[in-house]
Design brief:
With about 270 residues, the chain is α+β, with helices and mostly antiparallel strands. About 60% of the residues lie in helices and about 10% in strands. The protein folds into two domains: about 45 residues, no CATH class; about 210 residues. α2 packs antiparallel against α8 and α4 packs antiparallel against α5.
Length: about 270
């Protein structure tokens, strides 16, 4: 948080984007009319005082975001472990992925809700609206695109459970949604990285947000490589490189798991002056 830009004002209590501020900051207007510039991620993640402990806080939304992302990541990692599909069968393997995608979507929904609730009263009075468009907020874009990506993963992994899919159907309804979902994750992770670092290049190893967004960015790149390697030929139904696809999925899932776990100490860290 930067206090260099404290200026008196007559705006009502709340917060608002400053017309000359970076997309990664928000100006919070206190009841006394004093404007304090806050990092948008910190403002969003600390809207309310942290409850519970770092590792156990079921009453806190941020805790559930971390836990749901972690479970989804674990299931994706499990599904991509070499030998797992052979041990449990192809159908159980696809069910594992589908279940993991549902946890991803649940966590992404809460992330989006968290972002919407962090909007200024002018953008979302009394936090009543869920479907809002806030194109000037980088965090809104990041969480909205991420949520769309998880839905595409739901479609891909859900339809992968169908029996006797034709080669063309597998290409269109399994691989294509997976590829789109991977692109969405990459875009969302890049935006989240930019928000946390206030730019594309940064070195902040003492920041939880830096490590979280870095892990998620690497995970998204791995998922993207997996989607390319997992290309399904619409004529033959053959997967381009199943081993590489599984390896990259495993790498991505482990990175997402690390990012999810680090959300827990970020939630309870003390505010910086």
């Amino acid at each position: 948080m930067s206090r260099a830009d404290r200026t008196p004002g007559r705006s009502p209590a709340g917060h608002r984007p400053h017309p000359r501020s970076s997309a990664t900051f928000v100006d919070h207007v206190g009841a006394d009319g004093v404007v304090v510039r806050l990092e948008s991620r910190r403002h969003r993640k600390h809207q309310r005082p942290a409850t519970g402990s770092t590792w156990w806080a079921p009453a806190a939304r941020g805790w559930w975001i971390a836990v749901l992302f972690a479970i989804g990541s674990l299931l994706f990692a499990l599904g991509s472990i070499p030998g797992y599909a052979d041990a449990v069968g192809a159908r159980t393997d696809t069910i594992t992925y589908f279940t993991g995608s549902l946890f991803f979507t649940s966590a992404s929904f809460l992330c989006y809700r968290e972002t919407v609730d962090a909007a200024s009263p002018a953008q979302n009075p009394h936090h009543r609206r869920f479907l809002t468009c806030q194109p000037r907020r980088i965090d809104w874009w990041a969480t909205a695109v991420q949520l769309v990506g998880t839905v595409y993963f739901n479609v891909s992994t859900g339809l992968a459970m169908a029996d006797n899919l034709s080669a063309r159907a597998a290409h269109q309804h399994v691989w294509r949604p997976d590829a789109i979902g991977s692109v969405c994750f990459l875009v969302a992770s890049m935006l989240a990285w930019y928000e946390a670092c206030h730019g594309w290049l940064a070195w902040h190893p003492r920041s939880w947000a830096w490590w979280i967004t870095l892990a998620n960015l690497i995970g998204s790149i791995a998922f993207g490589i997996s989607a390319v390697a997992g290309y399904i030929n619409p004529a033959t139904g053959q997967v381009h490189n199943i081993d590489r696809a599984n390896t990259q999925t495993l790498i991505g899932a482990v990175c997402f798991l690390a990012g999810a776990v680090l959300l827990l100490p970020e939630r309870t860290e003390e505010p910086r002056n």
